């Protein structure tokens, strides 16, 4: 019984081949030739377009997503001068050369920010130094003013015989050297 099934199956296959060829019988040499064309057809209509689709998916979806994941603000800023150059060479919009420098400043923003911060720190140091000098001067001025006020204290009477006495303990060389107040204030 199995032998009869195979022969019927062979007969069905040969009938299909005959119908495909327009009723003509297919010779034994045409069968491998048809298999080769079928493989070639499958390769160029199914396999190659599928491989092209896989390649396009890889390039435009997978690799683009990976590029966007790696994209940083620094890389975006580095592309700004390239866009400016493309616009400048297209001559559609006249661009001044200052825009090229803006692109360079943006590309090297970290270096310029360090330079600007150093400038701020040096100015802050100068301001602190100035404030320190002003504080030192005002302290010295207040100290001298207090010393001068103590000398002009009229509440305590002088000792006997201290009418022409110098408070610093040093005798003046002449009359003009007496009684001056040190510092910025002078009392008349």
Description:
With 188 residues, the protein is an all-alpha fold. The protein folds into three domains: 1-71; 72-107, no CATH class; 108-151. The protein is built from five helices and no strands. Helix 3 runs antiparallel to helix 4. The chain starts with a helix and ends in a 37-residue tail after the last helix. The relative contact order is 0.04. The model has no long low-confidence stretch (mean pLDDT 75).
Helix content: 55-70%
Instruction: Provide the low-confidence segments as ranges.
Output: none
Average residue pLDDT: 75
The total strand number stands at 0
User: Nearest-angstrom radius of gyration?
Assistant: 52 Å
The count of helical stretches stands at 5
- Overall geometry comes to rod-shaped
Proportion of residues in extended strands? under 5%
Largest sheet: none
Distance between the ends: 147 Å
Order of helices and strands: HHHHH
Counting helices, strands and paired strands, the structural category is mainly alpha
The number of domains is: 3
Provide a short characterization of the protein structure.
The protein has helices at residues 2-20, 30-70, 73-90, 98-107, 109-151.
SSE layout:
Blueprint: H1 2-20, H2 30-70, H3 73-90, H4 98-107, H5 109-151
Helix pairs in contact: 3-4
Which keywords apply here?
188 residues; mainly alpha; 5 helices; 0% strand
């Amino acid at each position: 019984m199995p032998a009869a099934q195979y022969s019927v199956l062979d007969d069905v296959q040969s009938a299909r081949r005959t119908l495909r060829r327009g009723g003509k019988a297919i010779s034994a040499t045409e069968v491998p030739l048809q298999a080769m064309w079928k493989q070639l057809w499958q390769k160029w209509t199914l396999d190659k377009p599928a491989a092209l689709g896989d390649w396009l998916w890889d390039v435009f979806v997978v690799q683009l997503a990976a590029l966007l994941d790696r994209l940083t603000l620094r890389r975006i800023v580095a592309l700004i001068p390239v866009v400016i150059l493309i616009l400048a060479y297209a001559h559609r919009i006249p661009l001044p050369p200052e825009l090229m420098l803006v692109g360079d400043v943006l590309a090297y923003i970290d270096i310029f920010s360090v330079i600007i911060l150093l400038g701020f720190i040096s100015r802050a140091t100068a301001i602190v130094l100035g404030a320190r000098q002003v504080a030192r001067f005002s302290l010295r001025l207040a100290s001298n003013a207090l010393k001068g006020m103590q000398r002009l204290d009229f509440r305590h009477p002088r000792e006997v015989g201290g009418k022409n006495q110098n408070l610093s303990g040093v005798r003046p060389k002449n009359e003009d050297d007496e009684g001056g107040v040190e510092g910025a204030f002078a009392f008349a």
